[in-house]
Amino acid sequence: xxxxxPFRRPTLLAAALAGIVALSASPARADRCxxxxxxxxxxxxxxxxxxxxxxxxxxxxxxxxxxxxxCRGANYSNELYAxxxxxxxxxxxxxxxxxxxxxxxxxxxxxxxTGATRCIKRMGLLRGDTVKMRFRxxxxxxxxxxxxxxxxxxxxxxx
Length: 159
Description:
Elements: H1 5-25, H2 32-43, E1 48-53, E2 56-61, E3 64-71, E4 76-83, H3 91-105, H4 109-122, E5 130-135, E6 138-144, E7 149-156
Antiparallel strand pairs: 1-2, 2-3, 3-4, 4-7, 5-6, 6-7
C-alpha cells in the first residue's frame, strides 16, 4: 500500500502558487475618479490635484477659486464644480470649465462651453441668483453671491 502523503504536498503547493500568480497578475487598478483627475492634469496646463476625500477630488487652477471633481453620488455619476473669482467670470474661467467638462463627461468642448456660458449669464434680475438648466444631457446649476459665481455640472446615473 502506498502512502498518499507525497502527492498532497505538490498539489497544495501548486494550488497555492497558482493562487499567488493569479492575484499578482492582475494590475493594481486606481479608482475611476482618480483616473479622470489624472487625465485632467495631463491635458490642462496649470491644473494640480489636491486631496481626495469622500469621493471628491479637489483640484486647483489659477483661473478658478475652487475646482473639484465628484464621483458617484446619490443622484449623479460625475460632478464638476468650479467657482470663479468674480461675479462675472472671465473668458479663461469658461475655457477651463469647458475643457474639464469635455474630459469628464466625454462630450465636445463647444457644447460644454455653450452650456456653461448660458447658465452663468442667465443669472440676474429676472431669474435670480440660482439657475438650474439642462443642456446636452448635463444638469447645470449656477449660483452667485455678491463676490463670486459658481457652476456645478452633473450627469445623472442613468445617462
